[in-house]
Amino acid sequence: GFSRGGWIGAEMASKDCSRLSKMMLVNAFGIKLGGALARDIADVYYLPAAKVTRMKFHDPKNDPRDFKTMPARAVARVALHRETTVRFCWAPYMHNPKLKLRLSRISIPTRILWGASDRIIKPSYGRAYAKAIPKARFKLIPKAGHLPHIEQPAIFMREVRSEEHTS
Question: What's the pTM?
Fold first, then answer.
């Protein structure tokens, strides 16, 4: 699972792993690490879009979306996706207060991949995520931000296919 999908995957696995053999989380969110007023995850709805892009990508030129040239229908779809994220992830912001404690229930090998340049959800967050899951292994992907599969597809796929994750 990527980002929010990683959160969903972690929630599912923390409830029941009986139908799962392994899991991969990529720049996932969903847990709270800091205190009540600490921001573990940048507020992507408050910050200017250009700054969010700089935080999301190692190199902002790797952003595949150019809203100025995209068809209106595609831009509307992005807006709808953002609205859906807000509906599910706003209160509390981008986490389930109970998930961090439940991660210890995950009994399957779990690989956590993280873009080394992610400034929306920093690598330290990913390391903490991995530490909370008993059979998790953490791996940084260099020169990648929040979307390592977009910025470093060859390295990303090598990690996905690696033997370390399949055993």
Answer: 0.91
